[in-house]
Structure formats: structure tokens, C-alpha cells
Amino acid sequence: MVDLFTPIATTVTTLPATSAALQSSLPLIWVRTTGGTLDINAVTYKAKVSAVAFGTSRVAAQQLSVQIREAILSAPASRVNGVLVDYVEEIAAEEQKFHPPILRRSRGLTEVPDLDPLNQMVEIAFSIEARRQ
Hints:
Order of helices and strands: HEHEEHEEEEE
Shape: elongated
Oligomer: single chain
Mean pLDDT: 84
């Protein structure tokens, strides 16, 4: 994924150590594997992966996430640094996310969506099947 996304923006597997270093490296894509296994023949690796787009604003992060989504969903049947991508689909992120507080109303519970314009990141997740050739 690092090789696939690097033409779009700087792509890393670990975040910069400080907030200042993170801000100076924007736009940034942080990729990580959240799960995975080999198939029964030990040929194809099936991974669950997450990509987090960081931008200078919420809008920039959303635009970057669209580019990430387009790049990975168009990857099947192509080679990326010696790896043949067989299949990709978008999935719900595996890890628990922060859930905003729930407002109590007289007619039940309502969740508050994340509409914070200062939130500079967008997370998307995929299931990918690939094999080294």
C-alpha cells in the first residue's frame, strides 16, 4: 500500500513523533494492517488494511481519501512492486473508533455525528487479497 499511495501523497506506516512534525508533513497517508491471513495454499495473503488521510483541513483530508479509495479500488489485476493484487473491497474499519457523546432527548437517544471542521483526518478500510510473484 505504501508503494501504491506514494504517488498520491507521502505515505508512512508510523506517524511522525510530534504534532509539529505531523503538521509539517501534510498531506500524509498513514497505512496499517489490522488483520490478515494466508489462504490454505499459502499463496494469497488476505489482509484487512486501514488508510488514514491527513490534510491541512477536513476538506483536504476528504479529497485525499477519495484519491486513496480510487487508487486501491482500481488496483486489482495490477502489479505493485512485485505484488499482484487479486481483489479489493471497501470494508468498515476493524478498530474501535471514538464515538461522540450521545445526547439524551425526551424521545430517545441521538448520536452526534463528527462534523468538526478542525478534524484533519479521514479513515477508510479495505480487504485486499494479493500475492508476491
